[in-house]
Hints:
about 70% helix
Amino acid sequence: MTYQKVPIALLKDPRHLLSLGFGSGLAPKAPGTFGTLAAIPFYWLMAWYLPDQLYIVVCLITFLIGIYLCELTTQTLGVDDHPAIVWDEFVGYFITMLFVPLTLSTVVLGFFFFRIFDILKPWPISVIDSRIKGGLGVMLDDVLAGCFALAAMHICLWLFY
Length: 161
């Protein structure tokens, strides 16, 4: 499917700036991958400075704000779940890294696990992706991908660390 190019002027609105991942979603190829990469420095800061309980609160708040942000940008672009909307990748990656030790190897492994589940969309992610629209739909499939990736991360940690 071919999508319309996103006007760069949208980045002047802080709400679109966030939903477009600070511009990372405007990458011409693989915007979801670039959005996830853009989430890593934010994760790093959160993991370094926030206790686990506050990290969970931030994940919840970013999810709830994301429903609004993604709905707004979806309506503005007139396209449901435009690839340039990558706030959901930020939140999905944050979920992937819940209770994971902060190391370069876990950051990279979490990136790969999240991207795999986000791209392949195994059941029930694919069902959510196809049936729930709007801001909630944009967010939910990546939250589920993040949950799957979180499980994979903790299985790896249990087996290998």
